[in-house]
Amino acid sequence: xxxxxxxRLALPVRRAAAALGLxxxxxxxxPALSYPTxxxxxxxxxxxxxxxxxxxxxxxxLRHYLMRGEYDEALKMLDRSSKLVARDRLLRxxxxxxxxxxxxxxxxxxxxxxxxxxxxxxxYTKSLREAAGSLLLNDKVLAYVPSPAEMAVIPYYRMLNYLxxxxxxxxxxxxxxxxxxxxxxERESGRKCAGNAFVQYLSGLVYDAAxxxxxxxxxxxxxxxxxxxxxxxxxxxxPAYFGSDLLRLARLLGVEEVMEGGALPSAAxxxxxxxxxxxxVVLIENGFVAHRAHRDLYVPILPGEMxxxxxGEAGEIAAAAARIxxxxxxxxAEQATWGTALDASPFMQASQMAEGAYVLKLAWxxxxxxxxxxxxxxxxxxDQVVEAPPVEDVSSLFARELESQRSHIVARMVARGLVKYVxxxxxxxxxxxxxGEVLGFLTGIFANAAANALEQxxxxxxxxxxxxxxxxxxxxxxxxxxxxxxxxxxxxxxxxTLDLGRVTVRPGERVFRSGRVWGSEVGDRExxxxxxxxxxxxxxxxxxxxxxx
Length: 549
Known about the structure:
The protein is α+β, with helices and mostly antiparallel strands. It has a domain at 3-32 and 294-368 and 403-454. The protein contains 19 helices and 11 strands. The protein has helices spanning 3-10, 13-29, 57-68, 71-84, 89-102, 106-130, 148-164, 168-189, 197-209, 213-231, 242-253, 256-261, 265-268, 303-309, 314-338, 346-354, 394-404, 406-435, 437-454; strands at residues 278-286, 291-301, 358-370, 376-381, 384-387, 390-393, 468-476, 479-488, 494-505, 510-517, 544-547. The protein has a 4-stranded mixed beta sheet with strand order 6-7-1-10. The longest helix is centred in the C-terminal third of the chain and has 30 residues, at 406-435. The chain is elongated and about 90 Å long.
């Protein structure tokens, strides 16, 4: 029995065909969020999110508002979109939490994160039951569920919120939650680089600042293992001062294993902290995370191949499948070389359908990075200048996670295409039986077009997260100090400054400050070819790169 007949037996075709037609009609009539009028292209810098060709329109406007500090406008748009699309409310809540954080509304931001965490736990349990509904339409019909990498970032922002509010106890609670969540993800996924090494490091610094040194040492040792594992696959490594923090705590607690292990030999030569000084930690969120963009591919199944697939004869099925597979591979190669394939042309598809072919559309998400990250950032405290190297590559984590899901996404994509083909084929036969060959032919074309219109990649993601996180550490004498972040252009000139205000440093205490920056004009291009080990990045003279499968 052929796979098509197996699917036909398992699928109530009449209801499926009706659902396909109804879904197409509803999609055409669905309410859409109205957006502001686009500014003239000449008024926008080359790196503006509004010039992106791959960002969802709503995400482009949110990034635009965030960069301009128009937080109220961003929140209004998020509120309107949540009312229109209920299944995306969790995503909108995460986006709102980010906007509220940068607006300085830290308590509201934490409330939004709290709701999002609870809702995410509920949705994880429901997602498997709801997945069957997407087999006929697309994955975008499912309620949005954050990825593990996205969930691992929530404690980072919640810690920053509590620290900004002066509530160290709240920061400690988030540090514990971060450690537990990362440990669970690493255990369930079996991947050593499944967690967020820098969040574990920050948790250790927060524990240490709160005087909970045993927990601080545990977090730093977890971070040490994560940094080592993630560096091996291309992520940012441990900062230079990480070893000093680890060794200092080990000495204070008398943990010989760390002091004699030699895991971080550079730490042994670290100078002792000057007496009577305090520690300033400056965290810099830079750019925007790689977002999900859609990639489409069209593969015609010719009439002779359709007959072979439905013949029930193993030889004919294999021959037809081989020809379709060859055409699929050829179209992949053509698209990789030229950015598109001939079969993607609407005129070519219309011609193929007119000759009785079924045009199968495949759609999947790819990670795409916009070049809006500042090339270099540094921290200036009074007259002291300190470099701020990256300590976490959020885009790399997200792109690597998407790559790990590739086999599952492809399997669902192919299964969905197969189901839609069976539905369209059965609808054509039924119409032909009732109204003749012409009606059957027209029904088949409509069903094919409706199926392709509904085939869309799920490109939803937490698009307001940063591309990278950088850190600067300074030992400062007691008293008040002026702190700012400098953004440097390609020529090393300061193109933008972010004033973090005055900080009060006390002996033996640690102070945290953070800020968000972007590059000037088109930002940094140098990193666009090295985000993800194993994936090829396309970085032409333009401003972006896409990680291809």
